[in-house]
């Protein structure tokens, strides 16, 4: 049974409905773990729309957040689907995290 905790990112699907992406999540978890040793090259998640990339990232941030031994500080910045300028993006980013 999944222990109830307050998660940093609200997930769009229930914990037990997250299926079919466990192996990808495990690989990303290993990738994050290797960041502290500087052994994790950049990575990208590429797939067509509506195939669960956002849900996967939500779960990754929530999982890594509670693994203090990884010595990373996961953060999540969700962008709106709208045109913006560089200045507006930087202002929104800065006021979100600083």
Describe the structure.
This protein has 98 residues and is mainly α. It has one domain. Helix content is 38%, strand content 0%. Helix 1 (22-33) packs across helix 2 (53-65). The protein is globular, with a radius of gyration of 15 Å. The model has no long low-confidence stretch (mean pLDDT 86).
- Helix and strand pattern: HHH
Strand content: under 5%
Overall tally of domains: 1
Helix fraction? 25-40%
Q: Report the span from N to C terminus.
A: 36 Å
InterPro entries: P-loop_NTPase (IPR027417)
Topology:
Elements: H1 22-33, H2 53-65, H3 86-97
Helix pairs in contact: 1-2
Quick structural gist:
The protein has 98 residues and is mainly alpha-helical. It has helices at residues 22-33, 53-65, 86-97. The protein has one domain.
List keywords for this structure.
0% strand, mainly alpha, 98 residues
């Amino acid at each position: 049974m999944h222990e109830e905790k307050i998660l940093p990112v609200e997930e769009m699907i229930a914990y037990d409905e997250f299926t079919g992406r466990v192996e990808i999540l495990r690989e990303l978890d290993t990738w994050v773990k290797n960041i502290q040793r500087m052994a994790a090259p950049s990575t990208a998640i590429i797939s067509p729309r509506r195939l669960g990339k956002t849900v996967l990232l939500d779960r990754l941030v929530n999982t890594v957040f509670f693994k203090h031994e990884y010595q990373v500080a996961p953060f999540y910045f969700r962008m709106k689907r709208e045109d913006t300028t560089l200045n507006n993006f930087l202002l929104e980013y800065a006021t979100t995290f600083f």
